[in-house]
Amino acid sequence: MKPSLKLGLLISVFIAFGFFQMDSYAGGKGGISTDDLERFQESFKPDPATRAVMNAVTNNDVKKLALNREMLTAHNNLFNHRIKTKGITNQKSSGRCWLFAGLNIMRPKVIKELKLNDFEFSQNYLFFWDKMEKANTFLEGIIETRDRDPMDRELQILLKSPFPDGGYWFYVVDLIDKYGVVPKSIMPETENSESTRMMDRLISRKLRQDASVLRQMSDQGQSVNKLRAKKKEMLEEIYRLLVINLGTPPTEFEWRYEDRDTVVSELRTYTPQSFFKEIVNMNLKDYVSLFNCPTRATGKLYQIRMTRNVYDREDMTFINIKNERLKEYTLHSVLSDDPVWFGCDVGKEDSYEHGIMSPGIYDYESLYGVDFHLTKEERILYWDSVPTHAMVFIGVDTLQGRPVKWLVENSWGTKRGDDGLWTMYDQWFDEYVYNVIIHHKYLPKEVLAILKTRPEVLPPWDPMYSIIR
């Protein structure tokens, strides 16, 4: 490559990542003038009350200052319907909420049918195969985009996050369909499954190196078959790295259990696939993904490109419906003792210390004297809110048949929330819950009929894509 071309490419990269700012608004208009500065300074003359607020804010945690004591005093954690569950899981320093929530949907059934005091699936086992599948999907994406400019938008999305922890409900479905499940005792957590940052960083670097090699091979005129043969060699290295970090996933194992009556079962041999079939025995494909995204038309089927983890499976598909219907089907499921996987924007108007999710739990407007309100649609359009976390509904408190608050099982251990459980007030559901997974038996025929229509395909830069990152 000529030096001038190399320099041009380097400058393009720097601009893309914000190192150089190109002035597209040149012309002398739009800047902050001296007159503007004087106006700003004149507009704010703090009185004694405002000075007291300034002193408080500059010396304290804003959340503690803004905590709405009136709302906290009125709060209670009573629920007139609870699904029986046992134990709280902990994803620790990893982005595996989608996986923990997915496995937590199945835990109550196993505990009930085997009469166990507690039970937990191995999250590490499916996490291993999720990472392996994501590495393959990334490299296949590089092969597909081998002829594109390095600044191509889709290629940049691949390169920015080649090996993410994040995921979605259908990842759980596809992984279990292919790899089955195992008890946690068979493949327990490791330091690097619980704290994934360094493993992710190193393997991402390796995958980017592999991407460079594959693109160079393509530039040299080598065929797709040769690129895929090279990809398999690369995946052998990724497998090695994963085993060193996470352990070796079992292909066969022995397992027995003790029930609540201290009766010990016979020792049996399982494969991960046979364990799911014999012990869990759920058809995960009977569950339907429903979204409430007010920026899109409701009553339609959508699909988002580049969202799958298993390369030869489908991208994320969902039905977009009104929030009232989303809530109606969720309520029906929970009242029928079926836990509900859901995706939301955690961290918005919720208290980790008290386990409360409620709009207004922090009164920032009164503290600062500024209006911060945005509608749900505006928050999505302007990237103030996107799905960031998955949890499970395991209870509800109703008044005259309508939900007042929801009981949430999280996967952050018992030190956050109310011993690991959270109370979501119904108004928070309206504002920050985007997605629920509902068994088809709770859905009317007109909703199920939408699944047979052709989906509108959305690009990977759509805000709803963010839940898998």
Characterize the structure shown.
By secondary structure, the protein is an alpha+beta fold. It has two domains: 65-94 and 283-469, Cysteine proteinases (Cathepsin B, Chain A, Alpha-Beta Complex); 117-282, Cysteine proteinases (Cathepsin B, Chain A). 43% of the residues lie in helices and 14% in strands. It has helices at 3-16, 34-43, 48-59, 62-66, 69-74, 97-114, 123-144, 153-160, 169-179, 191-194, 197-219, 224-246, 272-280, 323-335, 364-368, 376-381, 426-432, 445-450, and strands at residues 81-82, 253-255, 268-270, 287-291, 300-304, 316-320, 340-344, 350-351, 356-357, 389-399, 402-409, 421-425, 433-439, 456-458. The strands form two sheets. Strands 1, 4, 5, 6, 7, 8, 9, 10, 11, 12, 13 and 14 form a twelve-stranded mixed sheet that branches. A two-stranded antiparallel ribbon has the order 2-3. Helix 7 packs parallel to helix 11 (197-219). The model has no long low-confidence stretch (mean pLDDT 93).
Uncertain stretches of 5 or more adjacent residues:
none
| Global geometry | globular
Distance between the termini: 34 Å
The CATH architecture of the largest domain would be Alpha-Beta Complex
